[in-house]
Design a protein that fits this description.
Radius of gyration: 13 Å
Mean pLDDT: 90
Distance between the termini: 38 Å
Shape: elongated
Strand order of the largest sheet: 1-2-3
Structural class: mainly beta
Number of helices: 0
Helix content: under 10%
Low-confidence stretches: none
Amino acid sequence: MGTPSYEGKQVYMGLDVHREFFVASCICDGVVVKRCRMPGTDC
């Protein structure tokens, strides 16, 4: 099984921001392709 191709497809990205954490999500064809939760620490 190879890497999926998203060429020619609409890919939606969302960012949910909170004080304690951030959540980034990528959706294609109604399916969550990737979801990452990151701490909301100061840089």
